[in-house]
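Because showing beats explaining, we let one protein speak, sequence and C-alpha cells together, and leave readers to judge.
___
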Amino acid sequence: MKKLWFPLTILSLFFLCILRPQQAVAGAAAGLSLWYCTVLPTLLPCMVLSGYLISESLICRLPPFPLALVTGWFCGYPMGAKTVSDLWKNGRLSEEEGKRLLRLCCMPSPMFLTGFLCTGILRISLAESLPLLAALYLPPVLCFLFGKCPGRRRQDTPSPQPAGYSEAALSSSRTLGQNGTPAPSPSGGSLLQTFLKFEKAMMEGFLIIAKIGGYLMFFTMLSYFFRSWIRDPFLSSLIPGVLEMTSGCAFTVQSGLSGAVTAALCFAFAAFGGLSGLAQTMSVLRSTPFSGRSYASWKLLQAALTFAGVWILSPK
C-alpha cells in the first residue's frame, strides 16, 4: 500500500482537474504567478551566484556557516538547504554539521515575513512584528547552539566536470600544441574553466527553479480544491497552509478567525514551509545523507513552538 499512495494521489489530482476545472485553473494560475513574479526573480540569481561562489577557492577559505546562514535566512526556502547540500558535496561540511545547519538556515526570508506577511496581509507594524519574528527565529537558533558538536568533515572529492569537458581534455589542450609538441598554456584556459563553473551553476539553478515552479503550481491547486470543500474556518485555513504557506496565509486572513489565532497560524505556516516547501527542500538535498523524515519532524516541532509563541505574544 505504501507504494500505491503516491500514484493514487496523482490519479486523484488528475480527475479533480477534469471535474473541477475552475479551481484547477485558478490554483495553477496563482501558483505560477507567485513563482514568476516573486520566486523566480528572487531565488534564481541567488542560486546561480551562490552555487558558483561555493566552487571558487576564495569562498572556500571562508567559514561555511555564515555563507549558509546568509543565503538561507535572506533568500528563504530552499536556498539554505541548497547551500548546505553544495557545501557537503564540496567536502566543507560533515554530515553532523550539515544536519545542525539545516535546522538553522532553512527558514523563510525576513523580507517575506515583514513585507508580505506582517505589513502586507496581517496589517501590523514592524515594531509590533518584532516579538513575533523572535518567536519564529529563536527556536532554530537555540537548537543550533545546544545541538551536538560537529563531526569530522568528509574527505574532499573532486567535483565532476561538465559533460564533454573532462579535466584530462582541458589539461591536454593546455599542454600540447600541434603534432603533440608542448605548447605554452593559453591565457584563456583559466577563463574557460571559470566560465564552465558558472555555466554549471546556472544550469543547476535553472533545474531547481523549474522544480520549485512545478511544486508551487500543484500544491497551490490542492489548496484551492480543499478550500472549496471545507466550510469550517479553522480547517479551511489549516489544510491549505500545511500544503502551501503563501496561499494558506492569504486564506487564513480571509477566514474570520481572531487576530491572535490568525497571526499564530500564519507564522506557523511560515515556520513549517508547507509540504510544497518540504518537497522543494528535498529536491535540493537529493544525493546527500540528510534525512527528509528528520527534517520534516523538526519543521513540525518548530511550527508548533512558533504557533504557541506567537499566540502568547499577539495582542488579544
Observations:
- Residues 21-145+195-313 form one domain.
- The chain is about 75% helix and 0% strand.
- The chain has a mean pLDDT of 81.
